[in-house]
Amino acid sequence: MKTIYMLFQIVVWLCLCTGVGADVKPIFGWVEKARISPSDMVLSAKLDTGADHSSLNVTDLTIFQRDGDDWVRFRVAGDNGESALIERKVIRIAKIKRHAGPRQERPVVKLGVCVGNYFGETEVNLVDRSRFKYQLLIGRSFMKSGLLVDPSLQYTSEPQCAEVGRAIE
Q1: Beta strand pairing status for 83-89 and 69-77?
Q2: Fewer CB within 10 Å: C terminus or N terminus of the chain?
Q3: Entry pTM
Q4: Tell me, what CATH number does 39's domain have?
Q5: Cα(5)–Cα(114) distance, rounded to whole angstroms?
């Protein structure tokens, strides 16, 4: 009986150490390729566990009215140099605290984001991030439901999710 109990403890210990029976979340590096939709733009993205929300570098930002709602039209450039014009309904206006200077107001839209084979829709604030190395910053609100970040890794996979939308061009 003692031998069976000891074997049982070993099996439990092995299961705990290897994650058997637990939800296994994908592990990505702190920088990854990400595809946003609607469009097919692939961007280098920083997975930032210190940021609450995601931000996207955009140009030609125009807010307009459609059916009584605020919408936004903006251009996104991919890593390959191509760009796409995207229109999305404005979800809200975020008031961003900055280290230097006054609060900044940014339109927030919902976009699909694909990292590896992990896809999720998330709120993204739109801003000029041209002075930053990475056009897309992915925050915890996207990561919390299913992926982990290993800060020692970079570019562990290519985006492989099914596309769920297209740009207007």
Answers
A1: antiparallel
A2: N
A3: 0.78
A4: 2.40.70.10
A5: 45
Range of weakest confidence among 4-8, 67-71, 121-125:
4-8
Opening angle at CA 128, ends 127 and 131, nearest 5: 135
111: in domain: yes
* Count of residues in the chain: 169
CA distance 57 to 59: 7
Residue whose token pair is 């839209």 = 109
Residues 90-144: pLDDT tens digits?
999 988 877 777 888 899 999 999 999 888 899 999 998 888 889 999 999 998 8
Q: Residue 130 burial by CB count (10 A; 0-12/13-18/19+): exposed, middle or buried?
A: exposed
Computed over every residue of the chain, the mean pLDDT equals 83
Say yes or no to pLDDT of 5 above 80.
no
CA dihedral sign, ordered 114, 158, 41, 161: negative
Which residues contact residue 11 at a Cβ distance below 8 angstroms, ignoring those fewer than 6 apart? none
Buried b (16+ CB within 10 A) or exposed e, 94-119: beeeeeeeeeeebbbbebbbbbbebb
